[in-house]
Amino acid sequence: MFTRLSRYLQGAALSLIAASASQAATEMLDQVVAIVDDDVVMASELRERITMLTETLQARGIDMPPEDELIRETLDRLILESIQTQMGVRYGVRISDAQLDQAVARVAAQNGLSLEQFRTALQQEGRGYGAMRENLRREMVIQRVQSGNVNQLIEITDQEIENYLATEEGQKIVQPDYRIVQALLPVASDASKAEVEAARSYAQAQLDRIRAGESFETVIGGSTGEYTFTGGDLGWRKLDDLPSIFQDVAPDIEAGETADLVRSPSGFHIVFMADRRGVDAMVRQTRIRHILIKPSEILTDAQARQRAADLRERIQNGEDFGALAREYSEDIGTATEGGDLGWTSPGQMVPEFENAADSTEIGTLSEPIKTQFGWHILEVTDRRDKDVTNEMRRAQIRDALHGRKYQEELDAWLRKIRDEAFVDIK
Hints:
The protein contains 15 helices and 11 strands. The chain is an alpha+beta fold. It folds into 5 domains: 1-92, Triger factor/SurA peptide-binding fold; 93-152, Triger factor/SurA peptide-binding fold; 154-174 and 388-426, no CATH class; 176-277, Roll (Chitinase A, domain 3); 282-386, Chitinase A, domain 3 (Roll), CATH 3.10.50. The chain has a 4-stranded antiparallel β-sheet, covered by helices on one side. Strands 8-7-10-9 form a 4-stranded antiparallel β-sheet.
């Protein structure tokens, strides 16, 4: 991929980079270093990107690659970004200011900073907040272009899922996750039997307080003097990744519970299960049917609501819900089925619809409710608790396989669009 780039190393851009790195006093004019389809890559872009990469590598203590290699790879990365950005324009990809604000807030939070602190940190590093936002917008456009093109190339069959589930790696992925907080009361290896028993009694007393309703943090944080606990949150871990002394007790503790006192060569442990996930997944499902009326150029929002209210009244007066749904509902996916949405799980519907379903008794009709799709009336026909553990585990395996295939397909797709693009290195 980089053979054509070698010509660039003999060009003027190399001297521009060197001049930038040495902070030469002479201001140099910007120039085109590559033409990429309908776009260009400027020497100033290349200088800026290399400066950023150099600072990042130095901050992480990573050895710098040879200068010519750094320039070649950075330029090719900029070329690929240009190709994808142009594709985003052709596809009509747009990142709204609200979406960008949320992304900036996430970046700040990931760095443990408030938005204002993040702005200040950028200024201290000599980087503009506005430029950072636009760079982030560009990255988001590129991510959408990549996912839109690559995801359609990935196919995961049921047999692949079954095969992977049968492997040791697959079994580890679907293992439950445990978040344990543990407190250790240290006991010296040469402690007498009386000292060991005294420590055990103290630890047991604190465990009893927790089980009686006091918070784990209050009890453990209040230990002082001779008996002081150490330890902390182990974070989310698979069973096999837990310390061996906790592996036997973790499966038997529900979230919010504590295990019996655990003895180890280090002392006595109080083990608190802060949370667990992926053990048994039960969800409350609701069976719903609905009628959707959409506002239009000839039906105002108020008229759409009134029509939904009129249909609700007709059903209450004895007319058949399914028949009216087939005649009037504008949800083409369910109208022919009498408005039946089947069994729905939490998070499957938009919040307004889900909230209305949750507050509607079985066999009764909701008031007209508005969502982004229009006005609905809905009837809850049944509820059940559904064990979705198997579906959840298969979804975990599907995600793992997708992640593995995604990178392979992305690399192949990037090579393809690079080969197909018109690129002229100056």
